[in-house]
Write a sequence for this structure.
DNA sequence: ACGTGTGAATTTCTTCACAGCC
DNA sequence: GGCTGTGAAGAAATTCACACGT
C-alpha cells in the first residue's frame, strides 16, 4: 500500500470500465482470475493490469490472483458505480429515440429520467410508456429539481454548442455528446464524444 | 522533410480526424490558420500540432501558418478519405435504424449500401425508400459482390462475437461495434467500439 | 510453484526552444 | 515579426524482473 491521494492519470481511469467488462465475462467461468488472463482478454500486458490496479489498492493475492467479485466491487466503488445515476436526454431525434429504447443503461445503474426536445411535434409524446418528452425550456427545472449531473446530448450540430452552454449553466457536470462538433466548455466539465464518423476516419487510415 | 516510411503511432493517427473537425469550423472564418489557433480550439499544445503534422510532411509556411484547404486535403489523403467507402449494416434494431437515418455518413464519404438482420419481421422492410433489409444469410454475397471492408455491427451482445467472426471470414477488415462486448478477432482486423456505458463509467470517476 | 506489487529500466509521448524561412 | 519544423530535453506510460507472501 502506498497510494493516499495522488492524481491518477486519466489513461488508467479510462481502462477501468474495460476491466469491468472483462470481469463480467470471466465471472461466468471462475471465481478468480489473474493479470495474465485479464490482459490476454483485453489485449493489454499482464504487467499493465497489475500496475493499474495497484494505483488504487492491493486487490490481489500472491499465488492466487484476483477474486472476481471482490475486484469488481472495488472497481465499481472507484468509478462511483455503487450508486444510481440520473441523466437527462437532450434532443429526441433518431439517436435520442435509440437511447431511450436502449436497455443497457438502467442495467448498469444509469437512468434517463427525463427527455426534452425543442420541436413542438415531439413535446408531449410518450416513449415506451415511461417518459414523456418535455419542452426544452423546462430543462433548468428538470436539472435542478432532480439534481442531475449527466446529460446525453443528441441535438443537431448547429445548436450543440449553445445547448451545452445552457446545460452547464444549469448545473450539468458531464456530457456525453453525440453531436459531431467539438464543444468548448469550462475545464471542470467532462465531455465524452460519441462520434462514429471520427471512428471511421480513424480506421480508414489502416485500410488500403 | 524526413519521413519516408516509418510507422506512425496510432495516437497521432487518432488525432487527425479531430484536426479535420477543427479545420472545417475554422475554414468559415479564414483561409489560413496556425498551430496556436488549432491547438487552442482542440485543447492541444501548439507544439503538438506541429509535431503531429510534421510526421506526414511539411504542410505549413513559416510566418503564415497553414492554408486550411490545403491542409484539409492533405489530411484527407493521409486518412484515405479522398475516396468513397462502402459499408454494410449488420443488425437493424434501434441503433441500426438510427444509423440508417443518420445523414452524417454520406456527407463524409461513408455509405451504408446494404443492411441485414436475422429477424423474419425485419427482412424485406424498406428504410428511407432507399435500403431494403436483407436476410443475414446473404451477408457473404453482399460483402463479396460489393467488395466491402467496413461493417457497422449493431447486433445484440449475445451474438456479437460469432457475427463478427463471420464478417471477418467473409472479408470484412474493419468493424465499428455498438455491441457492449469486447470482441476477440485477428490482429489485422481493426475494431472501434462505440459504447456509451463505457463512456459513462469513465466520467463518473470524476463526479462526486 | 504461482502470481502479486513495485522499484528500476525502457520506451513512448509531449514540450521546449530556436534556427531558418516568409 | 510571425510561425514552422525539429533536434534535444523532459514527462509520462509501459515493461521488466524479482522479492515476497500464499
Amino acid at each position: 500500500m502506498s497510494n493516499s491521494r495522488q492524481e491518477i492519470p486519466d489513461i488508467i481511469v479510462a481502462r477501468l470500465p474495460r476491466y469491468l467488462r472483462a470481469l463480467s465475462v470471466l465471472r461466468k467461468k471462475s471465481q478468480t482470475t489473474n493479470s495474465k488472463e485479464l490482459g490476454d482478454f483485453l489485449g493489454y500486458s499482464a504487467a499493465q493490469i497489475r500496475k493499474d490496479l495497484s494505483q488504487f489498492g492491493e486487490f490481489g493475492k500472491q499465488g492466487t490472483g484476483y477474486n472476481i467479485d471482490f475486484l469488481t466491487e472495488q472497481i465499481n466503488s472507484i468509478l462511483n458505480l455503487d450508486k444510481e445515476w440520473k441523466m437527462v436526454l437532450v434532443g429526441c431525434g433518431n439517436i435520442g429515440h435509440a437511447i431511450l429504447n436502449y436497455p443497457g443503461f438502467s442495467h448498469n445503474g444509469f437512468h434517463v429520467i427525463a427527455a426534452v426536445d425543442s420541436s413542438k411535434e415531439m413535446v408531449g409524446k410518450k416513449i415506451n410508456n415511461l417518459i414523456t418528452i418535455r419542452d426544452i425550456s423546462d430543462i433548468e427545472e428538470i436539472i435542478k429539481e432532480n439534481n442531475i449531473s449527466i446529460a446525453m446530448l443528441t441535438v443537431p450540430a448547429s445548436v450543440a454548442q449553445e445547448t451545452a452552454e445552457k446545460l452547464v449553466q444549469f448545473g450539468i457536470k458531464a456530457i456525453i455528446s453525440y453531436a459531431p462538433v467539438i464543444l468548448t466548455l469550462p475545464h471542470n466539465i467532462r465531455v465524452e464524444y460519441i462520434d462514429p464518423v471520427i471512428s471511421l476516419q480513424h480506421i480508414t487510415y489502416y485500410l488500403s
